[in-house]
Design a protein that fits this description.
Number of domains: 2
Number of helices: 9
Structural class: alpha+beta
Bound molecules: zinc ion
Helix content: 40-55%
Mean pLDDT: 87
Distance between the termini: 29 Å
Largest sheet: 5 strands, antiparallel
């Protein structure tokens, strides 16, 4: 089976979608979180919000803008993560500037020009950290350290020193980037019909494969032995978990194009929550599609118990 190859095309509207959603989405989410964080910073929840909006914005822009260039998708996924996290710290810097000038005004009992308070703050940051502006602010915040604690707990939590604060920020950024890319990449590598300029439709289930037959099934598909691969597929949903789910995906606009074969692994955690992950996505010719679908064995009779209960592990 040959892999799906994206056409590396980005229409003009695609660039507009990417630029608009990565900059606006990232700036809005980062800015709002910085605003709320003046009162409370929700550990894990706020970074998760930044991760999923960053990845979600890129994925939506890719879909709406019909972006079929993996490198462009990945670069914008990374860029959106960077903008989101930058907007969060930039927002905090902005709000700190605001409260700093209010403090100065309260102390002096008179209104002061914004340029003057900014100059005062910069002089302070320069003296404390050797840098002014945003960089000086980041360095100063790191020097103060942040504390990691449970939300709502009365204690101040675990304080982090300067080095660990930088490391903590880098980890936060790395996680945001990782999730953002993990969401952007599959969106941009999804099958697209170049004739109709449409994304392929959702998959139509042709059957499932038990876990103990999944390896041989995947191997035979990869080796283009579709008739043999089909013998491992069962039209009913096999009760064993994990299992493979086998779907065919077509262009909604035409019958001419190739058919995409998508195989996902369905598993459940201890709480019974299901999770699907793609294990295979490739293109089938018309002939291969027929071979595969026609060779799937008919479902067994009602009293025909499952044979071959082989021991796993
Ligand atoms: Zn089509």
């Amino acid at each position: 089976m040959k892999p799906y190859r994206p056409s590396n095309k980005v229409p003009g509207t695609g660039w507009v979608w990417l630029l608009a959603l990565s900059t606006l989405g990232g700036a809005v989410v980062g800015g709002v979180i910085a605003f709320v964080a003046r009162w409370i910073y929700l550990l894990l929840i706020f970074p998760a919000l930044m991760e999923f909006t960053s990845g979600g914005c890129t994925a939506i822009a890719v879909k709406k803008g019909k972006v079929r260039h993996p490198l462009v998708g990945v670069v914008f996924g990374a860029l959106t993560g960077l903008i989101t996290y930058g907007a969060f710290h930039g927002g905090e810097y902005f709000f700190t500037q605001q409260s700093f000038s209010k403090q100065i005004e309260a102390e002096l009992g008179q209104e002061i020009d914004a340029a003057e308070t900014n100059a005062l703050m910069n002089a302070f940051l320069q003296e404390q950290t050797g840098s002014s502006g945003f960089l000086g602010y980041l360095k100063y915040s790191a020097k103060q350290g942040i504390s990691i604690g449970r939300v709502g707990s009365s204690s101040d939590g675990l304080p982090l020193n300067e080095t660990f604060t930088w490391i903590y920020w880098l980890i936060e950024l790395a996680i945001i980037e990782a999730i953002s890319l993990a969401m952007a990449k599959p969106a941009v590598e999804d099958p697209f019909c170049e004739t109709c300029a449409q994304w392929y439709a959702e998959g139509q289930r042709i059957g499932t494969v038990t876990n103990d037959q999944s390896e041989i099934f995947l191997n035979t598909v990869q080796a283009d032995q579709m008739v043999q691969a089909a013998t491992h597929i069962q039209t009913r949903t096999v009760p064993t978990i994990p299992r493979l789910e086998v779907d065919l995906r077509k262009c909604p606009g035409c019958d001419q194009g190739e058919v995409a074969l998508e195989v996902q692994r369905y598993s459940e955690n201890k709480k019974g929550e299901g999770k699907r992950s793609q294990v295979l996505l490739g293109m089938l010719s018309h002939r291969q599609t027929l071979q595969l679908t026609e060779a799937i064995p008919a479902p067994p009779g009602p009293d025909n118990s499952e044979s071959g209960t082989s021991q796993a592990g």
